[in-house]
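This part of the workshop introduces the protein records we will be handling. An example says more than a description, so a record of this kind follows:
>
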Amino acid sequence: MTTTETTELPAPAPDRATRGPGRAGPGLPASVPGIASGLVWGAGQLINRQAGKAAFFFAFFAALIGWEIATGNYYAGMQFTPRLNGGFFVRGLWGLSTLGTQPREMTLTGLTEGDNSIVLMANGLISLLTLALLAVVWIWSIRDAARYRADLNTGRRPETSRGYFSRLWEGAFAYIVLSPGLILIVFMSVLPVLFGILVAFTDYNRDNLPPKNLVHWVGFENFATIFAVPSWTATFTGILGWTLVWAVLATVTTYAAGLLLAVVLASRRVRFPRVWRSVFLLPWAVPAIVSALVFRSMFNGQFGPVSQWLVDMGITDERVYWFTDPSHPSLARAVALLVNLWLGFPFFMALVGGVLANIPDSYYEAARIDGAGPLQQFRHITVPIVQRTVAPLIVLSFVSNFNNFGVIYFLTEGGPDNVEYRFAGSTDLLVTWLFKLTLDNRLYNIGAVMSLVIFVIVGAISVVNLNRTKAIREL
């Protein structure tokens, strides 16, 4: 029996390339490059010996600091104050938090410049959103430096900056292409929304206009005014109730009329269906504002032909003042619904017509074989298929009618007057009331509160109804 003895040889020293470039001593914690990049963007990448990535992240840091210094007054040799010495970011954040400290005043030399609270608020939002976008790059720099060092500590092969950016371009190409659009959305959509939200928490109104006066933060005082002061509460609840009724009836009537006409035009008994479709699409082709103004002239109580025709036919003893009779506000509301029906049914007619063209004839043939009549076919085949397809658009139509500014404002201007309402008439919707509060009466803070209320109501209704539709759940 022969016994073979084996001697363990020492493991070979790891190759210098496998240890990764730039390892400052064995076992350097991954947090060290991360902290370095947190203090100076790109410093962690420089510790990791990735000069290309370090230059990339440091460029953003240098642009941030350079922009602040270039727009500030840091070399004035006086005591530093954010108002006088701060750059774009420092003065912007100061203005957003304080809304200014010095109003315009009359002195012996004329009016002082003072602070414009609204301009300070807008500049502060721009600086805040810009910092938020730059914070994404800052966090990216920190995580990249720490993660790369952790990979080196586990013995993984190092990656060059060029290889990293090549891999990033291939793997995140879609996000890189979408990023300019995202930046535009932030400054063109998110910024105005945030500005409107902030105005709701200030005393910005006709009695306190900058730059003569400073605007102040007042918290939830404006919300308390709407929901606690009886006159404002009565106006809000009354207009909200009519807005909901209007949105429901305007949507239901246009959808029902469009569905009915689409079904009739799809019948083989109708000759020249294309001609009929073209005729019924004309109300949709004419701008809604033009149609509203035409109907407004037709239903004019003093000079309109409709009132004159009713008198001539003996239907009424005197002219009917459709839009100005405060004792009969239902007349103006009925006319508004009628005009909206005229403007809205072509859309659903064209939409439903396209859906009907894609329903297989075999469905109806099978129903006829089973003895189903036209009404049963309409109820059990046409309606379910159409509703399944157009349900999301019905919800969007409801939202559009909820904020249907054009028909109400250009047709009735919110009239007739209602003595129980504040700055509103009997046909005003929330959106037209908001318009009157802001542009006509310059109650910007109350208008901002109303815009928030409209957003919450419309958003909640839209989310609930869209989530209940099968077309959305199957996406």
Remarks:
- The first strand starts at residue 106 and ends at 107.
- The chain has a mean pLDDT of 88.
